[in-house]
Design a protein that fits this description.
- The protein has 279 residues and is α/β, with parallel strands linked by helices.
- It has two domains: 88 residues, Elongation Factor Tu (Ef-tu), domain 3 (Beta Barrel); 158 residues, Nucleotide-binding domain of ferredoxin-NADP reductase (FNR) module (Rossmann fold, 3-Layer(aba) Sandwich).
- It has a seven-stranded mixed sheet, with helices on both faces.
């Protein structure tokens, strides 16, 4: 059992949890993830680490309520426990001194990009961060991202806050005027990461994306996170979760994301029905 020592609502559908997990906190590195299972009937959920405190023995998880499991997670409160929590898993982000780097976080992807931006800043890089969300209500951690960035650009799709547009727009503008950018890291919805990769490719700027959203068991045994990278096949959970965005076969990835859509909808409908009856 892993106790939730703090919980916050970052938005109406995005939850922040600080969880007591000293063994994981002691070994965590940027880009790694954990697998959680809320209870005996719960599924395994991959969540990239948003932060950790090795002295306090806690890790920070941020999750958006989308399906049944994340909605069940959102119902937990401070003092409640998570049944299973395994990690840190996956290969950590490659942190080195590139010179100038751009960190792009979209939606809930702002959470995992934060420790990566911090690590890159601590390595001596000039960090330009771009964070975006569909609307102001889904935007969070602006101050935290500003604290680890030399420059921060904030975007909302609908223009309800800061600049209106998509994160690819300032990304392209920076690449056009700054030829010193040595690397781009983009984390967010798969479609956002695809278009970030398409934006950087003409400039020949290496681009890293995180693909943990298609994982299931997190051990490499189920094969559900199998993806095509260049001319080869990789498993996101054991070979990643970060990959060269220019080599990802995005069409195959999108198809894999849709495999369980019907089952996920039935599960969510059943959860809503049960939840409403209890209410």
């Amino acid at each position: 059992m892993y106790k939730i020592v703090a919980k916050q609502k970052l938005s109406p559908v995005i939850d922040y949890f600080r969880v007591n997990a000293p063994e994981i906190a002691r070994k965590a590195q940027p880009g790694q993830f954990v697998i959680i299972r809320i209870d005996e009937t719960g599924e395994r959920i991959p969540l990239t680490l948003a932060d950790w405190d090795s002295k306090e023995g806690t890790i920070t998880l941020v999750a958006m309520q989308v399906g049944t499991s994340t909605k069940k997670l959102g119902c937990l409160s401070e003092g409640d426990t998570i049944l299973n929590l395994v990690g840190p898993l996956g290969l950590p982000s490659h942190i080195e001194k590139y010179g100038t780097v751009i960190c792009v976080g979209g939606g809930v992807g702002i959470a995992p990009i934060y420790p990566i931006a911090r690590g890159l800043r601590n390595a001596g890089n000039k960090v330009i961060s771009i964070i975006g969300a569909r609307t102001k209500d889904l935007l969070f951690w602006e101050d935290k991202m500003r604290s680890v960035s030399n420059e921060l650009i904030v975007i909302t799709d609908d223009g309800s806050y800061a600049r209106k547009g998509l994160v690819t727009e300032p990304l392209k503008e920076i690449l056009e005027k700054d030829k010193t950018v040595g690397h781009v890291i983009a984390i967010g919805p798969a479609i956002m990461m695809k278009f970030c990769s398409m934006t950087t490719k003409p400039f020949n700027v290496p681009t890293t994306v995180s693909l943990n959203s298609i994982m299931v068991d997190g051990t490499g045994m189920c094969g559900c996170c199998r993806i095509s990278i260049g001319d080869g096949t990789k498993f996101v959970c054991v070979d990643g979760p970060e990959f060269n965005g220019h080599e990802v076969d995005w069409d195959i990835l999108f198809n894999r994301q849709r495999i369980y859509c019907d089952e996920e909808k039935r599960s969510l409908d059943a959860w809503h029905e049960c939840h409403c009856q209890k209410a």
